[in-house]
């Protein structure tokens, strides 16, 4: 794959995951295990870690449990993704490091509710092209 192809794949994956999260929080999606696991849980590596803007570290189980229980809890929540950029690819394009800007509006559990985050993500690319999230580091941007 070319660098441009890899960057497009990452952009689509980041957008798709965040579209799912926002739709889940709004209650737009079916509240069932098949929808949740297929669209969310399956994307995260078993050892996934998320460093939150406040410095807290969440495991895959923390993230899955928190998001699963939040279905329909924030009907006004929106996320938009901007400035996705591939920083590097390693191990014959199997490991991908990227950065992106996440803009949240009406986030009930974040202060301020309208906020921006600069995030770096490490993903693994499988032979079939599927991307799995290994690590996510979110930093608040004022």
Please, could you describe this protein's structure?
The chain is of the alpha+beta class and 142 residues long. It has a single domain, classed as Roll (Nuclear Transport Factor 2, Chain: A). It is 28% helix and 40% strand. The protein contains 3 helices and 6 strands. The protein has helices at 3-26, 33-39, 60-68; strands at residues 44-51, 57-59, 78-90, 95-105, 115-125, 131-141. Strands 2-1-6-5-4-3 form a 6-stranded mixed beta sheet. The mean pLDDT is 95.
Give the strand order, joined by hyphens, for the main sheet.
2-1-6-5-4-3
Counted up, domains total 1
Overall, the morphology is: globular
Number of helices: 3
Straight-line distance between termini: 35 Å
Give the helices and strands as they follow along the chain.
HHEEHEEEE
Category by helix and strand content: alpha+beta
> How many strands appear in the DSSP assignment?
6
Level-2 CATH architecture: Roll
Main β-sheet: number of strands, strand sense, barrel status?
Answer: 6 strands, mixed
Oligomeric state of this protein:
single chain
């Amino acid at each position: 794959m070319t660098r441009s192809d890899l960057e497009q794949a990452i952009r689509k994956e980041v957008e798709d995951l965040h579209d799912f999260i926002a739709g889940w929080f709004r209650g737009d999606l079916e509240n069932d295990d098949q929808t949740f696991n297929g669209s969310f849980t399956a994307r995260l590596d078993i050892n996934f870690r998320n460093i939150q803007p406040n410095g807290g570290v969440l495991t895959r189980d923390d993230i899955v449990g928190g998001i699963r229980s939040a279905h329909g809890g924030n009907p006004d929540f929106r996320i938009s993704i901007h400035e996705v950029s591939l920083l590097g690819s390693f191990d014959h394009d199997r490991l991908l490091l990227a950065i992106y800007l996440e803009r949240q509006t009406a986030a009930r559990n974040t202060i301020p509710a309208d906020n921006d985050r600069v995030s770096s993500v490490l993903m693994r690319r499988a032979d079939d092209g599927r991307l799995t999230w290994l690590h996510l580091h979110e930093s608040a941007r004022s």
